[in-house]
Amino acid sequence: MPLRVIVAEDAVLLREGLVGLLARFGHETLAAVGDADALLAAVRTERPDLIITDVRMPPTDSDDGLRTAVALRGEFPGLPVVVLSQYVEQSYAMRLLDSDRGNAVGYLLKERIGAVADFMATLDRVAAGDTVVDPEVVHQLVRLRHDPLERLSSREREVLSLMAQGRSNANVAAELFISDAAVNKHIGNIFSKLDLPVDVDGHRRVMAVLRFLGT
């Protein structure tokens, strides 16, 4: 059945390409926008059958598209969303799958758009309530079940390595040429990704180092 779709992608060529692809398969593009604020406004106005959005886009060029999609699924339960990502980001996939019990969501690498028939089939499945996750993302998520350290970004691993060497936060900041606030943020992410319990906050630094050392 034809779908009423909103496309959010800041790269103009890809955005227009998606609009053209949707039209070829009989779907209607209600709006094609280039930033998260416009996505939010368009969904509230048009109430689409499906959203296709990039992860990274203005206004901050970080994960604005993903955060907006998750927020919209909270505002409109059951809203089908397909998120496109340039790279495998396990944390992004998990945040999307955690929204609204993981129903009617898709998380795909952008390179999958080239397999047109499969991509369009994914849109139909997500619009019907299915969950579709890129095979490469699934592979990495399975690895995470066996090694929580795989969840850490390269920068977080650097921070944890320095923590294991007994460096203070100030030392870590100086070594990596980042601010104290950035160090605190990375350490908070490390604690969260390693699933360290909050009720032992005074010992989480030690527990994180022990995980890193394989104890």
Summary keywords:
10 helices, elongated, alpha/beta, 215 residues, 6-stranded parallel β-sheet, 6 strands
Structure notes:
The protein is of the alpha/beta class. It contains 10 helices and 6 strands. It has helices at residues 12-24, 36-46, 64-75, 90-98, 116-127, 135-146, 154-164, 169-176, 180-193, 204-213, and strands at 4-8, 28-33, 50-54, 81-85, 105-109, 131-133. The protein has a 6-stranded parallel sheet, with helices on both faces. Helix 2 runs parallel beside helix 3, helix 7 packs across helix 9 and helix 7 packs across helix 10. The longest helix has 14 residues, at 180-193. It starts with a strand and ends with a helix.
Rg from Cα: 20 Å
Report the sheet with the most strands, covering strand number, pairing sense and barrel closure. 6 strands, parallel
Distance between the termini: 54 Å
Q: What spatial form do the alpha-carbon principal axes imply?
A: elongated
Lateral strand order in the biggest sheet: 2-1-3-4-5-6
The secondary structure category is alpha/beta
Q: Could you state the order of secondary-structure elements as H and E?
A: EHEHEHEHEHEHHHHH
**What are the segments in which pLDDT stays under 50 over at least 5 consecutive residues?**
none
> Beta-sheet strand percentage?
5-15%
Q: What helical percentage do the residues reach?
A: 40-55%
Counting DSSP H or I runs of 4 or more residues, the number of helices is 10
Q: How confident overall, as mean pLDDT?
A: 86
Count the beta strands: 6
Q: What is the structure about, briefly put?
A:
The protein has 215 residues and is of the alpha/beta class.
